[in-house]
Amino acid sequence: MDAYEFPGSVDDPRVTERFCRRATGADGDVTLLGVVHDHPASVGRVERSLEALDPETLALELPPAAVPLYRAYARDAGDRPDFGGEMSTAIGAAPDAAVVGIDAPNWSFLRRLLTRLVADRVSPRIARRVVSSLGGATREAVACRVAATVTKATSMTVAYDHDPIEYDCTHDDPPERQAAHERSHVASVRALLGSVAGGESALAYRDETRERCMIDRLEELRRDECEVVAVVGVDHLERLADELST
Q1: What is the mean pLDDT of the chain?
Q2: What are the backbone dihedrals phi and psi of residue 212, each rounded to the nearest 5 degrees, phi first?
Q3: Distance between CA 4 and CA 184 in Å, rounded?
């Protein structure tokens, strides 16, 4: 099954080559599912794809510390998770898979990022902004871990800052409408980002390092000779697919 065969194996307009890639390398394969956070089309894509693939390992663009909270969201969900969007949906759709968080913050990310900042001799302004963004991400990861602990120990489902993003389409809309809206949304966001891109930025340092760490982690996972499916933001899809296919 390659990037062209997989979308054709699921009759759903949300499951297409644009958002689904099969990265084949010397050490094994990884199926990548690109998503837009909380979008109904992405939630549907993840659910349908994982039902068809039944992976042994499910890699999510989440910090490792946040995975237990999303497990709790998936555990307490009915027909559709109230919290966690496509990530908790993924866990619920692959109940037998080993779930791994591949996103920052983690020690590998911190080491790589600090090494790059020193090697590039970045300005103090950029360094301060990078450190500031790391502090926020770390606090969020710790808060997710605390929320998961409380959820597991009590009868309550504790949500941490996970109000779903609202779009001009819903989970009850036909898949065709969801898919069309998602395509339009992605195109609009990319056009906006393209108009303001350029120059050195703290976000570029952080996000490029995040992607490199996700690639390294996925390379490790596929060496175990198991079926690996990764759910990642659509903006990361192209680079991850290119790097993992070499």
Answers
A1: 80
A2: -65, -40
A3: 22
33: which strand partners? Answer: 20, 231
pLDDT for 121: 76
Q: What is the pLDDT of residues 87-127, one digit of tens each?
A: 999 999 999 999 999 998 677 777 776 777 677 776 777 76
Parallel, antiparallel or unpaired: strands 20-25 and 28-35 = antiparallel
Enter the tokens of residue 242.
């290119």
- Between the two ends of the chain, the Cα-to-Cα distance in Å is 17
How many structural domains compose the chain?
Answer: 1
Residues 6 or more apart whose CB falls under 8 angstroms from that of 127 comprise: 117
pTM value? 0.79
Domain extent, residue 154, equals 5-244
Nearest-angstrom CA–CA distance, 77 and 95: 13
